[in-house]
Specification:
CATH superfamily of the largest domain: Diaminopimelate Epimerase, Chain A, domain 1
CATH class of the largest domain: Alpha Beta
Order of helices and strands: EEHEEEHHEEEEEEHHEEHEEE
GO molecular function: isomerase activity
Pfam family, one: PrpF
CATH topology of the largest domain: Diaminopimelate Epimerase, Chain A, domain 1
Strand order of the largest sheet: 1-2-3-4-6-7-8-16
Distance between the termini: 29 Å
Low-confidence stretches: none
Radius of gyration: 20 Å
Family: Belongs to the PrpF family.
Largest sheet: 8 strands, mixed, barrel
Strand content: 25-35%
CATH architecture of the largest domain: Roll
Helix content: 10-25%
Shape: globular
Number of helices: 6
Protein name: 4-oxalomesaconate tautomerase
EC number: 5.3.2.8
C-alpha cells in the first residue's frame, strides 16, 4: 500500500517547510529522517520528486508535539533537509519556520485558541531555548490575512510576534568580544544562533554584492570555510565541517536607513535574506561595545529596534542587553515580527523506499 503522512505545508517568515505532528512520524530518528528524505525529494538538486524547493530555505521540516515542560505548550524540533545529500540535520534552530509553529499547534488542536488572539509558548528542542508566538485568532480560528509586511515575502499577512526568552548559554561563547582567526578580526556571538560577525571589508568585498556574486567568489569561499571551521572550535561546537552552524555574517555600513547591511552564509550558500535567530544574534552582537560592528553599524542608543538590511530588504529586531555580576553582557529582550501562511493541509505521499535516490539530471 502507498504510504501517506498527514502534513501541513506552510511559509514561515522567509522560509517554507513541511510541518508534522511528532506522532505522525517514526519515533526512531533514523527511520524518521529516511522518511523525510523521501518526502522532500532528497538527494536531488531539483528535489523534483518531493516537496522540497531545491534550496535550503525551502527544504525545511518542523516536528511539533505537546510539551512536558511546564513553561511551554508545545515542543518544536527543526530539521534541515539537505537538497543534494541524503542528510537531515538537527544541529540548529530556525526562527522563520518557528513563525508557523503557533498557528500549526492551533490547527492541530494542541493549543486552544483565544477569541481574539492566541499566545503559544514554544520550547525549541534543538537548543532548549524558549519563545512565545502571538497571532490573531478571531472567533477561535487562525487568521492568516492581515496588513503586516516583511521583506522577502510578497504581499501582506497577519502578524506573528515572537518574543524570545533568554537562553542559558553565553552570549559570547569564546568569552571575548573580539577574536582573531587567520588574521581576520571576528566577534563570535550566540543569541539563539551561533554566529560569527565579520567586517566585509576585511575579506576584500564590499558587503553589497548579490548572493550569486558572493557564491561565485572562489577565493572568498575558501576563506569563509577556514574561518568557519576555526570559529566552530573556538565557540565550543567542535568539528563543524558537516554542520550548518556557526553562520557567518558579513557586515557593511547601511545603505537604506537601517543599522547595518548584512550578507549571511548557511554555510556556503549566501542567504537571500537573513534568518530570524541569526538576525537576533547579529543585533545583540552590534550592541556589544568593542565588537567588530563598532564603526560599521549605526545604532540608535535610545531605541531597542535595530533594522538589519539584507539582500532583499530588511528585518527589524527588538534587542536590548544587560550586564551580569561580572560585567558580561546578556540579552535582556529579543523580539521580532514575522508572518506565516498555510499553503496546504492534507497528506503527503513519499517517494517509494524501493526507488533509488538521485536520478537523471
Amino acid at each position: 500500500m502507498t504510504e501517506e503522512v498527514p502534513c501541513l505545508l506552510m511559509r514561515g517568515g522567509t522560509s517554507k517547510g513541511a510541518y508534522f505532528l511528532a506522532g505522525d512520524l517514526p519515533a526512531d530518528p533514523a527511520a524518521r529522517d529516511e522518511l523525510l528524505l523521501r518526502i522532500m525529494g532528497s538527494p536531488d538538486e531539483r528535489q523534483i520528486d518531493g516537496l522540497g524547493g531545491a534550496h535550503p530555505l525551502t527544504s525545511k521540516v518542523a516536528v511539533v508535539s505537546p510539551s512536558a515542560d511546564p513553561r511551554a505548550d508545545v515542543d518544536y524540533l527543526f530539521l534541515q533537509v539537505a537538497v543534494d545529500r541524503p542528510e537531515v540535520s538537527d544541529r540548529q534552530n530556525c526562527g522563520n519556520i518557528l513563525a508557523g509553529v503557533g498557528p500549526f499547534a492551533v490547527e492541530r488542536g494542541l493549543v486552544r485558541p483565544g477569541e481574539e488572539c492566541t499566545s503559544v509558548r514554544i520550547r525549541m528542542v534543538n537548543s532548549g531555548d524558549r519563545a512565545t508566538a502571538t497571532f490573531p485568532t478571531p472567533g477561535g480560528r487562525v487568521d492568516y490575512t492581515g496588513s503586516a509586511a516583511i521583506s522577502g515575502v510578497p504581499g501582506t499577512a497577519a502578524p506573528v510576534v515572537i518574543e524570545f526568552s533568554a537562553g542559558a548559554g553565553k552570549l559570547l561563547p569564546t568569552g571575548r568580544v573580539r577574536d582573531e582567526i587567520h588574521g581576520t578580526p571576528v566577534t563570535c556571538v550566540d543569541n539563539g544562533m551561533p554566529t560569527v560577525l565579520i567586517a566585509a571589508s576585511d575579506l576584500k568585498v564590499t558587503g553589497y554584492e548579490t548572493p550569486t556574486d558572493l557564491e561565485e567568489d572562489v577565493t572568498l569561499a575558501d576563506r569563509l570555510r577556514k574561518l568557519r571551521l576555526a570559529a566552530g572550535r573556538l565557540m565550543g561546537l567542535g568539528d563543524v565541517s558537516d554542520t550548518t552552524v556557526p553562520k557567518l555574517t558579513l557586515l557593511a555600513p547601511p545603505r537604506d536607513g537601517g543599522a547595518v547591511t548584512t550578507r549571511t552564509f548557511i554555510p556556503v550558500r549566501c542567504h537571500t535574506a537573513i534568518g530570524v535567530l541569526g538576525a537576533a544574534s547579529v543585533a545583540a552582537g552590534l550592541r556589544i561595545e568593542g565588537s567588530v560592528g563598532e564603526g560599521i553599524a549605526q545604532i540608535d542608543p535610545g531605541s531597542e529596534r535595530i533594522r538589519i538590511e539584507h539582500p532583499t530588504g530588511f528585518l527589524d529586531i527588538e534587542s536590548s542587553l544587560g550586564a551580569d555580576a561580572d560585567g558580561l553582557p546578556f540579552p535582556r529582550r529579543t523580539a521580532v515580527l514575522r508572518t506565516a501562511r498555510k499553503i496546504f493541509d492534507g497528506s503527503v505521499f513519499p517517494r517509494s523506499a524501493e526507488q533509488p535516490t538521485g536520478g537523471q539530471r
